[in-house]
């Protein structure tokens, strides 16, 4: 049946805000002039920061937006939704105080229905404060925090206009295991699946309404694959009703990291017989999951080893203020890097990033905001509400397989971090998501009674470079998850895994070896469900002025050798339509002059690799099969205690800035052909390859057929620049906040990037973009990168770069 549509309208509210850094008086009032304030577009950061920053701007900032309310909105409900704001927000509408929200990672909404002046100008004003506040999770002061409190309205803002009879927002409704649309699954198989749809409807009219809910599941082509209509319910004026419906799908396409099929759930609210007053579309993925020591992690009845990494939401210069497109580009890079899982360390991240994980097949665990801190009182109240809000926001995402409720690395010695508190956190999560598809995860180390705390998936820990599942004697039936590995156990803040992309071949190989050695160790722990490396992308942090360089990619999202090691762990027969996938090969070598025969490491997911020097074969290798060995003697040159107090850490930081480990001093037998038997796909190590300047080529074969090829050429003298724009599946949008990285490569006459080149490169732009951050910028390992941010005007952009002694380069792009 077709219904007349009087449904909701959601408007992008990111455009043309006025911004002021500081705390001017009376800025909340409607008629205060703001014409001299800066005009900005959201997402927005209060201050552009240096590339290397620990103590970024903390303090007050203000945002104001003027808008007209259409006369057609009269009689409707009007809400403004903030996806997040860092981290204490005071909101006024036309001078009237509407809300004080504490917490920087989760959404909040205000009802402005009674505050709007129709046919006239309206003003919303927001004061933000990102100063240290021990009552707001994560709570720890910036100067001792291992990530950052970048401020601002750093996510999207939306304006919702809807009928007074409508589906509620789950977070705003504040109902345990309710509000909004809640979708769960049972009896899932390739033959059929039962979809339970729960819809919460609110009637804010002043008379009773007869209400019917129509729920329809559509496939990617928009074809109806299942639908149901509820019976008509009378909902009293000011009343509410939760409709529960069942849809059975025949031969469903199941969501899985290797084939992340998504359906659309269309929810229609019918007033009486024929008037559609509200409509929502929710992307869903049909799947079922379980965790056990006996069977590991199971999805759709099949065992799958979790192969993951961690991610902070930070970008160079702009902090956390990333567009939806930028969030998607990060997800693409992580998926292409061979990961099937991302831990959102250590807080709920952007809805756009989680949407991308659904689409690309990246499973996730979402942590409650926390890091080595748990104060009594208000902090714990907010932390518990954060658990409820993050589950209400993200419970319908098929990528979400765990909810981390333990406040990262926060143990008994950390104030109020008691067994009773974390047991309550575990119960809250299960209250919000009843059923067997809810799984809490968290640290059990330091718990007096971990069986009482009862996390469904306890975390493992490191002890002298070995991963152990804590308290085996009291948690004998539970498998463990290695939520961080590969960095800290190799030297703390002086870790030999913390290697900049420009550190050279030897150190990059050492970093990659650390992660290979650790991953092989993890895979030998048969009770392990999987793991997440620390970390996917380099990031800044408050406790240390150097970037944490243990990422598989640097802060500009440029890959290091270890990125390709992880990429080689992906299945060669799994092809994703949207991203690079399938067979691959990568030579982890610069092929520069060396005095002794070279050891050449090739990462590949093929059966065998043949290596060629200037067209001559030097051998065919099967994957390495050597024995597992002890790592070797780690010499860091400095004893580091990760658990220093705030005062001790500051003193240590200020006193040791000149000390950084030389990876060359380590007594480690890297790439000896061993420590790989537990890997899905071991590297290929070629010994004694005689150096000849020219071309080094690797061909990967599967069942005797060439499937992948990679070439490295000896770099000649730097001659020219070449520009590459990193769009990663999303073109630059003309919205005033989207951005891409422009990479200027220093190349020789053959087009080979010269890894020793460190030229200072100057970028110039014409058209509706601006360069954010440093310019000129020094090349690292032959590549100089700037951040290009769009203006809110479509058009053609010309990017040019220059460096002394090199031929300049230019490229064009169009933003729409």
UniProtKB/TrEMBL annotation:
Keyword Hydrolase found: yes
Gene3D superfamilies in alphabetical order: Galactose-binding domain-like (2.60.120.260), Glycosidases (3.20.20.80), Immunoglobulins (2.60.40.10)
Ranges for domain Glycosyl hydrolases family 2 sugar binding: 57-160
Gene Ontology annotations of biological process type: carbohydrate metabolic process
Keyword line: Glycosidase, Hydrolase
Annotated InterPro entries: Beta-gal/glucu_dom_sf, DUF4982, Galactose-bd-like_sf, GH, GH2_Domain-Containing, Glyco_hydro2_dom5, Glyco_hydro_2, Glyco_hydro_2_cat
Domain DUF4982: 598-626
GO MF terms held by the record: hydrolase activity, hydrolyzing O-glycosyl compounds
Domain Glycoside hydrolase family 2 catalytic: 295-412
Superkingdom in the source lineage: Bacteria
Family of the protein in this entry: Belongs to the glycosyl hydrolase 2 family.
Name of the protein described by the UniProt record: DUF4982 domain-containing protein
């Amino acid at each position: 049946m077709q219904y007349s549509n009087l449904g909701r309208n959601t408007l992008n509210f990111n455009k043309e805000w006025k911004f002021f850094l500081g705390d001017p008086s009376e800025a909340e009032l409607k008629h205060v002039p703001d014409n001299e304030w800066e005009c900005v577009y959201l997402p927005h950061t209060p201050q552009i920061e240096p590339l290397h920053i620990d103590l970024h701007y903390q303090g007050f900032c203000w945002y104001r937006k003027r808008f007209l309310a259409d006369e057609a909105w009269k009689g409707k409900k009007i809400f403004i939704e903030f996806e997040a704001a860092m981290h204490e927000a005071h909101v006024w509408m036309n001078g009237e105080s509407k809300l004080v929200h504490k917490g920087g990672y989760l959404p909040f909404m205000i009802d402005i229905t009674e505050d709007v002046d129709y046919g006239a100008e309206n003003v919303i004003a927001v004061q933000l404060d990102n100063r240290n506040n021990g009552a707001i999770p994560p709570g720890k002061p910036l100067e001792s925090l291992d990530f950052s409190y970048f401020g601002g309205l750093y996510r999207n803002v939306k304006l919702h206009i809807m009928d007074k009879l409508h589906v509620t927002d789950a977070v705003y409704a504040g109902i345990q295991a309710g509000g909004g649309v809640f979708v769960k699954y049972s009896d899932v198989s390739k033959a059929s699946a039962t979809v339970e749809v729960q819809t919460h409807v609110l009637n804010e009219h002043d008379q009773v309404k007869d209400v019917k809910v129509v729920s329809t599941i559509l496939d990617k082509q928009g074809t109806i694959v299942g639908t149901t209509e509820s019976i008509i319910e009378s909902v009293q004026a000011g009343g509410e009703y939760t409709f529960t419906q069942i849809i059975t799908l025949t031969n469903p396409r199941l969501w899985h990291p290797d084939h992340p099929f998504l359906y659309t759930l269309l929810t229609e609210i019918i007033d009486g017989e024929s008037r559609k007053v509200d409509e929502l579309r929710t992307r869903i993925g049909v799947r079922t999951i379980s965790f056990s020591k006996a069977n590991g992690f199971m999805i759709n009845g099949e065992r799958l080893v979790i192969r993951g990494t961690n991610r902070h939401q930070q970008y160079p210069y702009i902090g956390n203020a990333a567009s939806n497109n930028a969030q998607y580009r990060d997800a693409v890079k992580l998926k292409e890097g061979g990961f099937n899982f991302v831990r959102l360390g250590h807080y709920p991240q952007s809805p756009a990033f989680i949407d991308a994980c659904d689409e690309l097949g990246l499973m996730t665990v979402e942590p409650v905001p926390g890091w080595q801190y748990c104060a009594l009182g208000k902090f714990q109240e907010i932390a518990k509400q954060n658990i409820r809000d993050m589950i209400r926001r993200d419970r319908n995402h098929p990528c979400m397989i765990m909810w981390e409720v333990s406040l990262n690395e926060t143990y008994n010695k950390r104030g109020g971090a008691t067994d009773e508190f974390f047991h309550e956190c575990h119960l809250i999560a299960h209250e919000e998501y009843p059923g067997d598809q809810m799984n809490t995860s968290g640290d059990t180390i330091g718990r007096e009674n971990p069986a009482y705390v009862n996390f469904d998936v306890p975390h493992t820990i490191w002890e002298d470079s070995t991963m152990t599942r804590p308290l085996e004697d009291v948690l004998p039936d539970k498998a463990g998850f290695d939520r961080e590995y590969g960095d800290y156990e190799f030297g703390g803040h002086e870790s030999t895994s913390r290697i900049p992309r420009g550190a050279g071949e030897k150190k990059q190989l050492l970093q990659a070896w650390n992660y290979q050695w650790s991953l092989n160790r993890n895979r030998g722990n048969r009770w392990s469900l999987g793991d997440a490396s620390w970390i996917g992308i380099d990031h800044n942090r408050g406790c240390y002025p150097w970037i944490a360089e243990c990422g598989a990619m640097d802060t500009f999202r440029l890959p290091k050798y270890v990125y390709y090691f992880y990429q080689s762990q992906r299945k060669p027969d799994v092809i994703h339509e949207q991203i690079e996938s399938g067979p691959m090969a990568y030579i982890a070598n610069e092929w520069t002059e060396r005095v002794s025969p070279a050891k050449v490491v090739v990462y590949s997911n093929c059966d065998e690799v043949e290596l060629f020097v200037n067209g001559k074969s030097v051998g065919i290798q099967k994957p390495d099969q050597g024995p597992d060995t002890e790592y070797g003697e780690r010499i860091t040159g400095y004893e580091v205690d990760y658990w220093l107090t705030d005062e001790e850490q500051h003193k240590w930081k200020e006193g040791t800035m000149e000390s950084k480990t030389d990876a060359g001093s380590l007594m480690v037998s890297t790439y000896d052909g061993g420590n790989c038997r537990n890997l899905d796909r071991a590297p290929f190590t070629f010994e004694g390859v005689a150096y000849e300047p020219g071309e080094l080529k690797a061909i990967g074969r599967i069942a005797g057929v060439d499937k992948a090829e990679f070439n490295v050429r000896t770099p000649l003298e730097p001659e020219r620049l070449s520009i590459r724009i990193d769009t990663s599946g999303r073109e630059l949008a003309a919205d005033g906040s989207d951005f891409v990285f422009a990479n200027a490569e220093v190349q020789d006459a053959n087009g080979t990037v010269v890894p020793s080149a460190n030229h200072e490169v100057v970028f110039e732009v014409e058209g509706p973009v601006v360069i954010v951050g440093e310019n000129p910028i020094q090349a690292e390992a032959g590549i100089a990168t700037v951040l290009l941010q769009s203006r809110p005007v479509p058009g053609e952009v010309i990017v040019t770069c220059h460096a002394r002694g090199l031929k300049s380069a230019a490229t064009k792009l169009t933003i729409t």
